[in-house]
Amino acid sequence: MRIMIMTRMHRQRDVCAKWKRNCGPRIIKKKKKKLEENRIGATYYQMIWNGDAGCEVMDKGNKYVVDVFKRDYSCRKWQLNGIPYPHAISAINHRQEDLYNYVDECYEKAKFLATYENMMMPIRGERFWKKTHRESPEPLPSRVKHGRRKQKRSREEGEVASGTRMSRIGMKMTCRTCLKTGHL
């Protein structure tokens, strides 16, 4: 398990170094579709710019306030998801800036690298560990499993099942209509 985690951390750092944008390719791939849908939706909104970072976006009679610098949006979808929604996109497009600069910082390369910056140090084999005179640790007690318990108990090897049901082996069956044996 330790080796698997160590190699994954190393691999993730190397992959991140090859990113062409500030966001990862998987994030771009997943979010690109959403951004394109939002970009198309943004074309139908009317925007009133205040001359600074804020603007008012009108959508079918509803008004939303967007502050581009604070990345604040009265609908709150941008804050929750980290991706600009149509009202915010209309404000960003008005400023003629790249949408990917306004994707939340949790998707950025720096945050990804910060996640994998600490390395796991390799350790020597068990043969080199110091011997102690203490008792070896006991395994944790088993927990009671959730859900319905088994009806029958698990039988030990060689234990014969109790005969609560009768088998039909050796019994002579009789027909219901003619009451003769040998056929059904």
From TrEMBL:
Please list the residue ranges annotated as the Zinc finger PMZ-type domain. 71-98
Q: Where is the composition biased (Basic residues)?
A: 143-153
Name the InterPro entries on file: Znf_PMZ
**Domain of life assignment:** Eukaryota
Q: Annotated region Disordered: where? A: 132-166
The GO terms describing molecular function are: zinc ion binding
Q: What is the name of the protein in this document?
A: Zinc finger PMZ-type domain-containing protein
Q: To which species is this protein native?
A: Eucalyptus grandis (Flooded gum)
